[in-house]
């Protein structure tokens, strides 16, 4: 019986003999989201292809993922290419494709990754963790709706900005706060941090209390920690905060922050989201 964590199964990539940096993988039903994989899982796969590349330098500092089309259930190809290596930074492009009509590759996802060999310097955060109740005092979010399997892979404890109980088109703020970790214990790493940066539902749903069609077009995540700081988190909770910023003519952006229980800011993200009336 396999004891591999569901997230590690979803991230499993096989090196290909086609060219350096070429990998193959398959979508995971554990991280399905209605019409395709959970965007955070796709972002993690893009990052994972760079982290598994034999020429990678250092650790991630930035990841941008553009969702051109939803991945279909089944196999996919990933190509990670180092386009520039400097003394302390390395710049990557990533492409995820699936076979299209006539066997031609169908581009579903493009991404850029920046890795860096960090050196110890003066460090300080100007974004302190907000006050929050202890995780054990907050009720855990119940099982997600049918077709949204990825929600079951996370333990979420919202204490502000839950999905509206009534879709009555009333106006609200757009901020949510929650405690978050993998439902099945797994030590935090860069791939899981990238995925958790995308767990927040579309802010337009909360702002308007209206369940309109919405989907992420592009997300950028910045990593503010190294392996030692992630190891300190282990399987503990992260405090997450997300808020919308500007809603305009079919698109809006939302920003998110993730802190450790000890108050260290681990990652920030910003995404542009499509919405429809």
From TrEMBL:
Domain of life according to the entry: Bacteria
All copies of domain Acyl-CoA thioesterase-like C-terminal, residue ranges: 142-274
Pfam families found in the cross-reference section: 4HBT_3, 4HBT_3C
InterPro entries documented for this protein: ACOT8-like_C, Acyl-CoA_hotdog, HotDog_dom_sf, Sec_Metab_Biosynth-Assoc, TesB_ACOT8-like_N
Domain Acyl-CoA thioesterase-like N-terminal HotDog: 29-113
Protein name from the UniProt record: Acyl-CoA thioesterase
Native species: Variovorax paradoxus
């Amino acid at each position: 019986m396999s004891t591999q964590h569901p997230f590690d199964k979803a991230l499993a990539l096989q090196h290909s003999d086609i060219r350096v940096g070429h990998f193959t993988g398959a979508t995971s039903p554990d991280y399905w989201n209605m019409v395709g994989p959970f965007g955070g899982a796709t972002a993690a796969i893009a990052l994972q292809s760079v982290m598994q590349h034999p020429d990678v330098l250092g650790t991630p500092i930035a990841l941008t993922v553009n969702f051109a089309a939803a991945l279909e259930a089944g196999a996919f190809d990933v190509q990670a290419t180092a386009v520039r290596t400097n003394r302390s930074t390395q710049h990557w492009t990533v492409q995820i494709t699936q076979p299209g009509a006539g066997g031609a590759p169908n581009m579903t996802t493009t991404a850029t990754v920046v890795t860096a060999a960090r050196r110890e310097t003066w460090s300080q955060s100007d974004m302190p963790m907000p006050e929050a109740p202890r995780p054990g005092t907050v009720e855990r979010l119940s099982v997600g709706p049918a077709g949204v399997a990825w929600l079951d892979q996370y333990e979420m404890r919202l204490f502000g900005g839950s999905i509206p109980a009534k879709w009555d088109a009333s106006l609200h703020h757009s901020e949510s706060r929650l405690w978050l970790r993998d439902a099945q214990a797994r030590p935090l790493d860069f791939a899981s941090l990238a995925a958790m940066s995308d767990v927040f539902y579309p802010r337009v749903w909360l702002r308007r209390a209206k369940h309109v069609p919405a989907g992420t077009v592009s997300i950028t995540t910045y990593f503010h920690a190294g392996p030692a700081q992630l190891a300190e988190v282990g399987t503990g909770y992260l405090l997450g905060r997300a808020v919308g910023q500007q809603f305009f003519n079919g698109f809006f952006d939302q920003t998110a922050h993730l802190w450790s229980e000890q108050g260290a800011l681990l990652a920030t993200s910003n995404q542009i989201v499509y919405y429809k009336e």
